[in-house]
Amino acid sequence: MSNISGIIGAIRTIMWQDTGLNGDAQRIEQLGWMLFLKIFSDKDLEMELMDSKYKSPIPAEFHWVKEKGNWAGDDEGITGDELLEFVDRKLFPALRNINVATGNRRALIVREVFEGNNNYMKSGINLRKVLNKLNEIDFNVAKDRHAFGELYENILKELQSAGKSGEFYTPRAVTQFITDIINPKEGEKILDPACGTGGFLTCAIENLKKKANSVEARKALQENVNGWEYKPLPYLLATTNLILHDIEVPNIRFGDALDQPLSNFTEKNRVDVIIANPPFGGIVANNNENNFPQNFRTKESADLFLILMIHLLKHGGRAGIVLPDGSLTGDGVKQRIRQRLLEECNLHTIIRLPNSVFQPYATVSTNLLFFDKGKPTKDIWYYEHRMPEGVKSYNKTKPIRIEEFEPIKKWWKKRTETEISWKVSIDTIIERGYDLDIKNPTKQEEAQEYSSVELMQMMDKSFSKGNSLLNKLKEALQ
Question: Which CATH class is domain 2-140?
Answer without folding.
Answer: mainly alpha
